[in-house]
Amino acid sequence: MPSNTLSKRERERRESQRHASPASKRFLRLPAVMELTGLRHTTIYKLISENRFPKQVRVGDRAVAWLEDEIIEYQNARIAERDATDAAA
After folding, report:
1. CATH level 2 (architecture), domain 25-88
2. 0.85 surpassed by pTM
């Protein structure tokens, strides 16, 4: 698919999320975040400590999770960073 179609879909998805109720937010536990990003847990926590990755949310006494939309935003920012580098070359 052309990249402009994907960005239009992404804009539509973000717009719909903006109007979604807080109850529709989805939490992801560490294994799901690792699967989505391809990062190991040590890298995730290192990036968090450097303020380069979304911070986790406490969801229980001994449990944390990440907001799915924040992980998607992180991924989109990495893609945009790559595309900007490619365009500059």
Report:
1. Orthogonal Bundle (1.10)
2. no
